[in-house]
Amino acid sequence: MNLQYGDVSTIADAYDYIVLGGGSAGCVLATRLSEDPACKVLLIEAGGADRHPFFRMPAGFAKMTKGIGSWGWSTVPQKHMNGRVLRFTQAKVIGGGSSINAQIYTRGVPQDYDDWVSKGEADGWGFRDVLPYFKKAEKNQRYANEYHGYEGPLGVSNPVSPLPICEAYFQAGQEMGIPFNPDFNGATQAGLGYYQLTQFNAERSSTSIAYLHPASARKNLDILLNTQVMRIVVENGTATGVEVLTKNDRERRLLRANAEIIVSSGAIGSPKLLMQSGIGPADHLHQVGVPVVHDLPGVGSNLQDHLDLFAIAECTGEHTYDRFTKPWNAAWAGLQYLLFRQGPVASSLFETGGFWYADKDARSPDIQFHLGLGSGIEAGVAKMQHAGVTLNSAFLRPRSRGTVRLASSDPMAAPLIDPNYWADPYDREMSLRGLQMARDILQQAALKRFVLEERLPGRTVASEAQMLDFACRNAKTDHHPVGTCRIGAGADAVVDADLRVHGLKGLRVADASVMPFIPSCNTNAPTIMIAEKAADHIRGKVITQEHVS
């Protein structure tokens, strides 16, 4: 692997495949496509390397939402949330979201993917079609059954250092009628339990670490880091190359693709790149001064995301990891991790959670919980003076749809991100129900020995109006944007079932942006699955359907 840090002078002028974006999907694609020694592959990433220890340590996630390895973007003011502007963390590092996320490995439920086919016209992407690719990616350290694989690159394991408060949380759920579930990715999703994590030997298993690093000996794979793709070059209806600019360059350089260009820059970055290349809704491109190359109205539409609400309680003692923010305790935690691969540094801090119903008539759980083993873990979330515990809730199947648009014709300008949260009142209603469920769980008898009192929203917040005000002021993204280059055949679709961009040759999109509907889960595992399946679509060797009972 020829790993270059923004130096294009030593790489070739032409490749068979050029992959744009070295995130969760891009690392998988570059690795799989370069398995054929006859193919020459280039992976281009705007961010840098993942050498910092925080990228390897599971607890490093807490630093990531505060700016390390991210673009630093925000939403536009949300008109259904009193004009609130939300921080919108998007990865800018090799490995993408898999290098900075909380490492939670969930897939959703079979109907999520069956809906892609029946409602989204994504033929060949039903659950029986995608399950083989989830299993192909997976190196599960506990399960080997019809739902799980253990021979893939991606480490998937159970938490190594759970705390007693986690077990009490499970008991609190059972007091409310919510069962314990040992495997959210198995026969049923409903219940509370430990999340499986993308970790291996108590280290983060990003797609950079799991896929790309082992491919380092391949002579047919080049990687450019710290390199910005300015535009995709289209000639006579075919994508033929890309113009790039590195940190040290003053002039753009053209790199050619003999076979295909695959865009894998994420649900925000992929539509942004297409539009700045003149591929997108013509009226918008005219407005910002970008010459129209190919009118494709669906680019940047259909944005979906999970909005996160939270309750924070003060603990009766040092029952969570808050004490390890003090320097002397942090030093001990670091030593414990280095010597034994245990303790708070080995924790993703959100390794416990579950799924349940806000709408009793929902076809599957529509609320997801994440139990945060501390307070103030993520950027913008309050930290308690004493030890605290956080319980997040997110409505999983929002009906609201937003957009990604260009702010100007400048490729370096931040995009206009509008998730349009709560445009549909149903989303708001279910979100507030989820928040109330989180509050109720924290008040159950099983947690009394750990939880002193709810501090946020706090006992004075009781009415629906007060809950709504709290939610508008404190809600955050769950970092799950999808859908902005969706699969389908309609006028608002961007790619076909083989992920080829409608109306152009030599160009595909393969990442979270192609999802027609957001799955009922964290989105990293589904994104990795898409990349695995996309590689086989490109190579013409799609795995046949697998039986699922």
Q: How many helical stretches?
A: 13
Gyration radius, rounded: 22 Å
Distance between the termini: 42 Å
Tally of domains: 2
CATH fold topology of the largest domain: FAD/NAD(P)-binding domain
Taking the sheet with the most strands, its summary is: 8 strands, mixed
Architecture of the largest domain in CATH?
A: 3-Layer(bba) Sandwich
CATH class of the largest domain: Alpha Beta
Structural class, from secondary structure content? Answer: alpha/beta
Identify the CATH homologous superfamily of the largest domain: FAD/NAD(P)-binding domain
Total beta strand runs: 25
Helicity range: 10-25%
Which keywords apply here?
Cholesterol Oxidase, domain 2; 21% strand; FAD/NAD(P)-binding domain; 25 strands; 2 domains; single chain; 549 residues; alpha/beta
